[in-house]
Amino acid sequence: MTISGAFGRLYRGETTVDYYGKRRPAFIVSGVFMLVTVLVLIIGGLNLGIDFRGGVAWEAPATATLDADAVRGVLEANGIETANAKLQTLQGASGERIRVQVGDQTDAIRAAVQTALAEQAGIEVQEVDVAAVSSSWGRSITIKAIRALLVFFVLVSLYIAWRFEWKMALAAIAAMAHDVLVSVGIYAMFRFEVTPATVVAFLTILGYSLYDTVVVFDKVRENIDRFATSRMSMGNIVNVSSNQVLARSLNTTLSSALPVVSLLVVGAVILGATSLRAFAIALLVGMLTGTYSSIFIATPLFAIFKNREQKYAGVASQVAQGAEMAALYEHTTTRAAQKAAADSQAAGESSVAKNTSTSALTHPPRPRKRRRR
To answer: Which domains does the chain have, with CATH numbers?
Structure first.
């Protein structure tokens, strides 16, 4: 069954979108977003969870006598400032729960607040959960996360430089840095809480970003080898390559994003698991930005780097569009078919030659002449 129409062209990689021509608007949008991210980080910073900044958190079931105002009253009664206290109402299968986080406190104050919350809610003391984390532990997590990120960047750069070329490595690193900064910016703008699960998600999305980028780069390298003897511009090569793998990138993103959306809806909304929400939001944002950056950031950057080479500098402005790009795609497909046919013919001739050589060496021996006496 042959799929026709726009979906058919997308499925067969026959679309004619000029990604290289849209590089400037894409760079401007990404640049503005990253600038806003930097400003938000400077002004407000990230909403770090208790695991990073240290402190104490109490969590108790919400009752008719225990609400946000009652919790603030308990804190003030125990000498704790409520200006920087973080109050959350969590939805879960067992009902609503109230969670409050403050700075580090002494053991006596922790116990006193726990007892006061239990009395205010009319429940047992054991039903009020208390979690305490030191700020030194949070700094240790931050340092390890930054170290892991740098090691990942170095190893990925070395691998791509060895597997492809160093210009592709630079473009891939720029795309991954873009994805991380965009994800961090969204967390800073919407004041999502950054937890250790969020850091794990940030490291995970680098893998998705790298996968999409490598898929496009592999097709770009294949087309570079295919047109090695022609005067094909790098803009045309990256456009054809991006259109050929667009369906694969979209399918990968959708198949990966659907479970994450389910995790976000079921885990965060229905079950009220805030840790799952932080993890799922970071993954979802990273997957979407990873697909975007592989086509609109990494590949155009690589083309810009390659256009500085003598081979491509003279034809850098020659970028096909519309019908010309469609004809270029047909030309690419024809060259691929011819190459495949030539390889098949060469393999067949080699097999025939091998069989002929084998048959020539395995003919029955001639009868030996009898000696005269």
So the answer is: 26-45+137-313 (1.20.1640.10), 55-133 (3.30.70.2040)
